[in-house]
Design a protein that fits this description.
It is a single chain. With 524 residues, the protein is of the alpha+beta class. It contains 16 helices and eleven strands. It has four domains: 194 residues, no CATH class; 159 residues, no CATH class; 77 residues, no CATH class; 47 residues, no CATH class. 41% of the residues lie in helices and 12% in strands. Bound molecules: adenosine monophosphate and magnesium ion (MG).
C-alpha cells in the first residue's frame, strides 16, 4: 500500500489528555486523548469508495492490498498516523448532556493529498476510548453500511457531507438490543473509515464553555479558523475574526438545511454534538429519507414522542443549535449584538437558499415571492402532497414531464401510496398543475432547457430506507451484490440508468412499518 503524507495539526497544536489508557473518565483541559484502535479478529473489506480513495491518492491496487483492510479495520497503523479520540460535549434532545466525546470514533490522522488538501481519516466502531461511557466502542454492520452508503450518496446528490472511504467487517459479533425491549442479540460488527477536512462539532466548543475554560475555548476557536477557514485569515482583529467565523458557520448551516429539505433527508438526531462546524452532514445514525411527503415524519423511534427532529422542523432545530453555539462563544467574544445579528442572518440565508433550491426544483427562471406568487404555490403543493400521501422524490422528478399546455396526472401514476388518499386530492392536484403550467408559461424558457435544469436538481434515486435495508439483509447473509449495485446507482442520482427502475420505485407496502425501513432506533 502506498504511503500517505500526514500533518497532524490537531494533536500537534492543541493540548492533549496527559492520562493514558482507555478507562472512562472526565477529561479536563484537553481537546483529545491519544488512543489506538482495538484490533479485531478478521478484518475484511466489504466496500470502498473509488472517489474518496482518489481524493487520498489511493488507487485500486492500494485498496486491494491486504494491508488496507488491516489499517482501516483498526489492526495496523500507517507511518505518520497519531490516533486520538476528541473531547466534546453536547445538547441532546434540548438538554445539556455534559461530556460526550468520541466514544467509538478514533481519528487516525490528517493526511495531505497531492493537491494540498487536508483530509482527516477517522474510524467509527474502532473500540473503546476514554469517552465510551457505558458502551463498547463498536458498531454493527447494519448502521455502518448505512453510514457508508449515505455519506457517498449525499456527496453525489450535491449535499455537503462527511465522506466514507471504506466499510470493513470485523469478523466479530457485537451485542445490540435493537428495540430496547430486552431482546439483545449478537450482530456482525463493522468499521467505517470516514473522511472530512475536519470532524469538529459544535459540542467541541460547548464543552470548554460549560467548564469555564476560556483559554482553551479561545485556542480551539483560533485553531479551527486558522486550519479550516483560511479565507478569514485577512481579518487581523481576533474578536472580529471570530465573529466573521460564526457568521460563516451560520451561513453554511443554513445552506445545509436547505439541501436536506430539498432532497428529503431527515437526520434523526440533531444534537449539538452531531452538528459539524464545517456545515457538513455528520454522524449518520437513525436517519431516514422522505417517501410520502410528510413534514411530521421522523425515522428515529427514540424521538417518536416529541418528534423534535422531524423533517419539517430541521431548519428551526439548526437555529436552536446555533444559539447554543453562540452562547458557548460569548465568553471569548463578549458582544451580544453581532452574535444575535448572525443568528438572524441564519434565518434570512436559509430562506433565500431554500427558495433558490425550490425555484430550481420547480423549474422557474426566477422566484416570485409572496402568498399570491410562488410561495403560495409551493405551500399549496406541499399541503396536497402531504394530504394525498404522494412520494416526494417521484413527484418532483416527474414534474418535469408534465405537459404544461395540457397538464394531467399521468406522469404521477407511480407516486401514490393509497387509493383513497389519492382520490381525495386528485381534483385539487390537477388544478394546481394547471396553475403551475400557467406560471411556467409566464417565463420564456425553452421546454427542453427547463426539463434538463429540473433533472439536474430533482434526483431520481435516493438511498431510501427500504433499499438500504435490503442491502443490509443481503450483506448480513454474505451477499454484497445488492450493496454494490445500490452504491453504483447512487453515484449518479440525477441520471436515469437503464435496468435500475426498481431503485427509483416508491417504498413497497411491506416496508411501511418494518424496522429499518420506516423506523430506526439509536442502537447501532
Ligand atoms: P450519537 O448520538 O450516536 O452520535 O452518540 C452520542 C454519544 O454516544 C457520542 O459520544 C458517541 O461517541 C457515543 N456512543 C454511541 N455509540 C457508542 C458505542 N457503541 N460505544 C461507545 N460510545 C458510543
Ligand atoms: Mg454523534
Amino acid at each position: 500500500m502506498r504511503a500517505l503524507r500526514f500533518d497532524n495539526r490537531f494533536v500537534r497544536e492543541l493540548p492533549g489528555d496527559p492520562e493514558e489508557g482507555r478507562h472512562v473518565r472526565q477529561v479536563h483541559g484537553a481537546c483529545y486523548s491519544r488512543v489506538e484502535p482495538t484490533p479485531v479478529r478478521a478484518p475484511q473489506l466489504l466496500a470502498w469508495s473509488p472517489e474518496v480513495a482518489g481524493l487520498l491518492g489511493l488507487g485500486d491496487a492500494d485498496v486491494r492490498d491486504p494491508r488496507f483492510a488491516q489499517v482501516f479495520g483498526g489492526n495496523a497503523l500507517l507511518p505518520g498516523m497519531e490516533p486520538y479520540a476528541a473531547c466534546y460535549g453536547g445538547h441532546q434532545f434540548g438538554n445539556w448532556a455534559g461530556q460526550l466525546g468520541d466514544g467509538r470514533a478514533i481519528t487516525l490522522g490528517e493526511t495531505i493529498n497531492d493537491r494540498g488538501q487536508r483530509w482527516e481519516l477517522q474510524l467509527k466502531g474502532a473500540g473503546p476510548t476514554p469517552y465510551s461511557r457505558r458502551a463498547d466502542g463498536r458498531a454493527v454492520l447494519r448502521s455502518s453500511l448505512r453510514e457508508f452508503l449515505c455519506s457517498e450518496a449525499m456527496h453525489h446528490l450535491g449535499v455537503p457531507s462527511t465522506r466514507a472511504l471504506s466499510l470493513v467487517a470485523t469478523g466479530e459479533q457485537v451485542i445490540r438490543d435493537m428495540f430496547y425491549d430486552g431482546r439483545a442479540r449478537p450482530e456482525p460488527g463493522a468499521v467505517v473509515c470516514r473522511v472530512a477536512p475536519s470532524f469538529i462539532r459544535f459540542g467541541n466548543f460547548e464543552i470548554f464553555a460549560s467548564r469555564g475554560d476560556e483559554p482553551l475555548l479561545e485556542r480551539l476557536i483560533d485553531f479551527t479558523i486558522d486550519r479550516d477557514f483560511p479565507e478569514l485569515a485577512g481579518e487581523r482583529d481576533p474578536v472580529a475574526r471570530r465573529l466573521r467565523w460564526f457568521e460563516e458557520v451560520c451561513r453554511r448551516t443554513a445552506v445545509l438545511m436547505a439541501h436536506w429539505m430539498r432532497v428529503g433527508f431527515v437526520h434523526g438526531v440533531m444534537n449539538t454534538d452531531n452538528m459539524s462546524i464545517l456545515g457538513l452532514t455528520i454522524d449518520y445514525g437513525p436517519y431516514g429519507w422522505i417517501d410520502n411527503f410528510d413534514p411530521e415524519w421522523t425515522p428515529n423511534t427514540t424521538d417518536a414522542g416529541g418528534r423534535r427532529y422531524r423533517f419539517g422542523h430541521q431548519p428551526r432545530i439548526a437555529h436552536w443549535n446555533l444559539w447554543q453555539l453562540a452562547n458557548a462563544l460569548y465568553p471569548v467574544i463578549r458582544e451580544v449584538e453581532p452574535l444575535e445579528r448572525a443568528l438572524v442572518s441564519y434565518a434570512d440565508i436559509h430562506e433565500a437558499e431554500y427558495r433558490r433550491m425550490m425555484q430550481a426544483k420547480l423549474g422557474f427562471a426566477a422566484w416570485q415571492a409572496g402568498e399570491q406568487g410562488d410561495d403560495g404555490l409551493l405551500d399549496t403543493l406541499h399541503r396536497l402532497l402531504e394530504r394525498g400521501e404522494v412520494d416526494m422524490t417521484i413527484f418532483f422528478r416527474r414534474l418535469a414531464d408534465v405537459d404544461i399546455e395540457a397538464p394531467s396526472l399521468a406522469p404521477f401514476e407511480a407516486a401514490f401510496y393509497d387509493g383513497s388518499r389519492r382520490a381525495a386530492i386528485e381534483t385539487e392536484l390537477l388544478q394546481w398543475l394547471q396553475a403551475y403550467g400557467a406560471r411556467v408559461r409566464t417565463e420564456d424558457v425553452p421546454a427542453d432547457v427547463r426539463r434538463a435544469g429540473m433533472n439536474r436538481v430533482n434526483p431520481i434515486y435516493v438511498p431510501r430506507n427500504y433499499l438500504a435495508q435490503q442491502a443490509i439483509d443481503a450483506a448480513e447473509a454474505g451477499d454484497l451484490s445488492e450493496l454494490e449495485t445500490l452504491f453504483e446507482v447512487l453515484r449518479q442520482p440525477y441520471v436515469e440508468q437503464p435496468g435500475c427502475e426498481r431503485f427509483a420505485a416508491r417504498r413497497p407496502d411491506w416496508a411501511r412499518h418494518k424496522a429499518g425501513c420506516s423506523m430506526l432506533s439509536c442502537s447501532s
